[in-house]
Write a structure and sequence with these properties.
Elements: E1 29-30, E2 35-39, E3 45-49, H1 52-56, H2 60-63, H3 74-85, E4 94-99, E5 108-115, E6 118-125, H4 133-145, H5 150-165, E7 169-175, E8 181-188, E9 199-200, H6 207-215, E10 218-221, E11 229-232, H7 254-263, E12 267-275, E13 278-287, H8 295-340, H9 348-355, E14 363-368, E15 371-376, H10 381-394, E16 400-402, H11 405-408, E17 421-426, E18 434-439, E19 444-448, E20 456-459, E21 462-465, E22 474-478, H12 487-550, H13 554-576, E23 583-584, H14 585-597, E24 604-607, E25 610-613, H15 615-634, E26 643-650, E27 656-663, H16 676-689, E28 692-698, E29 701-708, E30 713-717, E31 741-745, H17 749-761, E32 765-769, H18 772-781, E33 786-790, E34 792-793, E35 796-797, H19 799-808, E36 811-816, E37 833-835, H20 840-856
Parallel strand pairs: 24-26, 31-32, 31-33, 33-36, 36-37
Antiparallel strand pairs: 1-11, 2-3, 2-6, 3-11, 4-5, 5-6, 7-8, 7-13, 8-9, 10-12, 12-13, 14-15, 14-18, 16-17, 17-18, 19-22, 20-21, 23-25, 25-30, 26-27, 27-29, 28-29, 34-35
């Protein structure tokens, strides 16, 4: 039995009278767009579809029991054997394109797989499609990789599948943990209804159907009204039917046909989305007329589906890893804080403020040693005590969660507006003390695709689930439930539980030690803070003094002082920001220098390659450079009319060598005492980075040499001279083409989709054509304001379209990948030429002169 559930792809493909059996097929039938043949291990024909004579001239009676060598060419059999040797795993399928099976007949596209001990061969006439699947999918994947955010990723995936297959509607359908599903993204032909946001109940897709979706990830129904073709013989001598679970041409059950007919669908296609070894969802496709994408297109779509699944899994894992990484930092802070102050464990407000950053909730209740504290939306104390008693019975010392507390405690319905769901973290080996996170009732309207409360009825095909005759959405207001805690939040909660439990168990022996250690750290931080504040105050005072001496008016004084204070703030951002990516040394020095010198920062001369440092080294060097510039401004070359020369290089071992020299300033005398700043300069790099630092107080000016080991030098990047760096084009104005109809003629699908997005960003209504014929049709049907023409369209050019537009007075531009070497006819030499690849900004720059020419005319 081939179980296909009632989904946006269209109803049950399943005979429910046999739902206790393993998934096999629908009574041995195939769709008539191809033929099927099953061979024994001796390559004798065991089964064949009844329509085989329509394709190869041999009927079932002529083939059954005969060797395949008497039917197919020897070269074809050799190719098939080679494909079979590549099969790995029980569900593997191999394909061959344009294979000549019989002399004198056109070639076939062929798929082979094992079904038990049989080899199943499926073939359909080869199309003239010269699609190169790997190149096409590579372009699709490249575009998909550039999307930002999960919503855009899913939406663009649907658009890519629709562009490749040509179906009227392509949906991304996602399963929830409870089994029901939702249409989370959609791409559709204009003029048809949207299914976006519709839900489908878990009963629509039985367990057997999901198992088959995992095995056979691609399914196409070319023509809903086609009459299926039987397999001959239907059963083998032992009475067993052919397992057709992996067959590409497998027929469709009558109930599935009825469902699709009710929807008005003429063809459907589905691609499984499998993430982390589980069925995440489907690409579900509809077409309102018969449609069979070519074998190459289907192979490309299947490959794209597999790569899409891997990219989706990677994105979800990246998001989860980022989230859990932040959560681990919170857990560390929480554990350290509680270890220092046991009373924080009973401070519900503090716990809530700390935990809610990583596990969103509406309230928190804490139960420790019989004492209860609350923060946010929580039940009353008596109700919370009852919840703790329930947890003691059910939680068994482990995490416990529910998104519908009233199902476990009916009396909880009275406070669902404050605590409909919870996540409990036990804090002791015995289930006694808890931190409980609460989520309030999440009222939401669920849009079901028809009433989900279906029943088994006697339909035209016997007792089974009859598909719904109406597909009007049916809304239900969900009450008494909260947003469930997801798997990542549960993992974070478990980490928090273990961290808190460890603290509680060790607290009695280590509390005093931790408090003493925290006190010492606090003293050190206070001393460092005091030093920082004194330096900042001194620097601001110096800035005010220098600004006052040079300002010509009060307004100049205020403006100059404000700009210098802002520069100082940016410099300190470089020191204190949580930078986890490598950062350039030059930017660090320039920002610090700007804080002191403003427009005269050329008194600090820099020379060296574009070195990227690790975050640890960047932070240490920021402190060192800050102190060096502070001392230079207070006592050294920058306090007078001198200059500071800073040059650096990377030696053969990859270490950074930085040299500091001051010239033209006052005579330098070594200080008689070492303050905190001097300590930072002399000890930070050796202590924190295992490097070297040397300071020489010479009469002509201070000199310093620093060595940062290669382990902290990420790379040396090439860098053009700053004066030669091109100025990026200004961002396109969204109003540039607002209210205008724009024709885009482009024969490459991916480039066309990029062009559509760029034009829409400029406010245009876009009509796209891939050939001269379709462009002519678009011109005749639409009132156009502008056009972007790809000059080369395969073996022809867009010059005929340019002639039509010129006759109608519609301005346009040419886009080309040939650059300046393109030869344009003389009558079109004034037409703007846009070089590929182009962005929204460069497109806007090319459009502006064309529009201005229209206004001038």
């Amino acid at each position: 039995m081939d179980e296909r559930g009632e989904t946006p792809a269209g109803g049950f493909d399943v005979d429910l009278t046999n739902c206790d059996r393993e998934p096999i097929h629908v009574l041995g039938q195939v769709q008539p767009f191809g033929f099927l043949m099953a061979l024994t291990a001796d390559w004798l024909v065991s089964r064949v579809s009844a329509n085989s004579a329509d394709f190869i001239g041999f009927g079932p009676e002529e083939m059954l029991g005969k060797p395949i060598s008497g039917i197919f060419r020897g070269e074809a059999i050799h190719s098939l054997r080679n494909r079979i040797t590549l099969l790995r795993g029980p569900d593997a399928v191999e394909r061959a394109f344009s294979l000549t099976l019989i002399d004198g007949l056109p070639p076939f596209d062929v798929a082979v797989h094992f079904s038990g001990s049989l080899v199943v061969i499926e073939a359909e006439p080869a199309s003239a499609d010269e699609l190169e699947a790997s190149s096409m999918v590579r372009s699709m994947v490249s575009r998909l990789a550039q999307t930002d955010g999960m919503t855009a990723f899913l939406r663009d995936g649907a658009r890519q599948v629709r562009a490749l297959t040509g179906f009227d509607r392509v949906m991304v359908y996602r399963f929830s943990d409870g089994g029901d599903g939702e249409v989370v993204a959609e791409a559709l032909r204009p003029g048809i209804d949207s299914f976006f946001g519709l839900h489908y109940p878990a009963s629509d897709i039985p367990v057997q159907a999901r198992a088959l979706y995992m095995r056979n990830i691609f399914r196409v129904i070319a023509d809903v009204k086609a009459v299926p073709v039987p397999i001959v013989p239907q059963l083998d001598p032992s009475g067993a039917a052919l397992d057709m679970s992996l067959c590409l041409t497998r027929a469709v059950s009558p109930i599935h046909i009825e469902y699709l007919g009710n929807m008005g669908v003429g063809a459907s296609l589905s691609i499984s989305i499998i993430v982390d070894g589980k069925l995440w969802g489907l690409f579900a496709c509809h077409h309102y007329a018969p449609r069979l994408p070519s074998f190459a297109q289907r192979s490309a779509a299947e490959l794209f589906g597999q790569i899409f699944s891997m990219m989706l899994e990677s994105r979800e894992r990246s998001e989860t890893a980022l989230y859990e990484g932040r959560a681990r930092q919170v857990a560390d802070r929480l554990m350290s804080a509680v270890a220092q102050d046991h009373d924080l464990l009973s401070n519900a407000r503090w716990l809530g403020d700390t935990i809610f950053d990583t596990i969103p909730a509406d309230g928190v209740g804490v139960y420790v040693d019989g004492q209860m504290t609350f923060s946010g939306l929580t039940p009353e104390p008596a109700a919370f005590a009852a919840i703790v008693a329930m947890l003691n019975r059910n939680a068994a010392g482990q995490l416990f969660t529910t998104d519908n507390l009233s199902k476990i405690m009916p009396e909880a319905a009275a406070f669902a507006d404050r605590a409909a769901g919870l996540l409990a973290l036990p804090l002791s080996r015995r289930p006694r003390d808890y931190v409980v996170l609460f989520r309030a009732e999440q009222l939401r309207s669920v849009r079901w695709a028809g009433n989900q409360e279906k029943h088994v009825e006697y339909g035209p095909h016997g007792p089974r689930l009859t598909p719904r005759k109406s597909f009007e959405e049916w809304s239900q207001l969900v009450r008494g439930t909260a947003i469930p805690f997801n798997a990542a939040e549960m993992r974070v909660a478990e980490a928090l539980r273990k961290a808190l439990l460890e603290v509680v168990l060790r607290l009695a022996d280590s509390a005093n030690e931790e408090r003493q250690r925290a006190h010492e750290k606090q003293e050190l931080l206070i001393a460092e803070l005091n030093h920082r504040v004194r330096n900042i105050l001194s620097l601001i005072r110096g800035l005010m003094s220098q600004t006052r001496d040079s300002a010509g008016s009060v307004e100049d004084f205020i403006g100059t002082l404000e700009s210098r204070v802002h520069a100082l703030a940016r410099a300190h951002d470089q020191i204190t920001a949580d930078r986890w990516a490598p950062a350039p040394l030059r930017d660090l020095i320039e920002i610090e220098a700007a804080a002191y010198l403003g427009d005269r920062r050329d008194r600090v001369r820099l020379s060296g390659p574009n070195v990227l440092l690790t975050p640890a080294a960047f932070t240490v060097l920021a402190l060192v450079i800050h102190e060096m510039l502070t001392n230079a401004a207070k006592y050294g070359a920058l306090s007078d009319s001198g200059s500071v020369i800073i040059d650096w290089k990377v030696d053969a071992e990859g270490s950074l060598l930085l040299h500091w020299s001051e010239i033209g300033g006052p005579a330098v005398v070594a200080p008689t005492r070492r303050g905190f700043g001097s300590t930072v300069i002399e000890r930070s790099i050796p202590y924190d980075l295992s490097g070297k630092a040397e300071i020489h107080f010479r009469l002509s000016g201070l000199e310093a040499h620093f060595c940062v080991p290669s382990v902290h030098v990420v790379s040396v990047m090439p860098e053009a001279a700053r004066a030669d760096r091109p100025t990026p084009p200004a961002p396109p104005t969204p109003e540039l083409l607002k209210g205008r109809n724009v024709l885009l003629v482009e024969d490459n699908m991916i480039i066309a989709m990029d062009g559509e997005d760029a034009l829409r960003d400029l406010g245009a209504e876009v009509i796209t054509a891939s050939s001269i014929g379709r462009a002519r049709e678009a011109i005749s049907l639409n009132d156009l304001d502008f056009a972007v023409l790809d000059f080369n369209l395969g073996h022809e050019t867009s010059l005929p379209i340019a002639e039509m537009l010129a006759e109608r007075g519609v301005s346009f531009l040419f886009a080309t990948g040939y650059g300046d070497g393109l030869e344009v006819p003389e009558r079109f030499t004034d037409v703007p030429l846009l070089k590929k690849p182009y962005s929204g900004a460069t497109l806007a720059q090319a459009i502006v002169p064309a529009l201005e020419a229209v206004k001038a005319g």
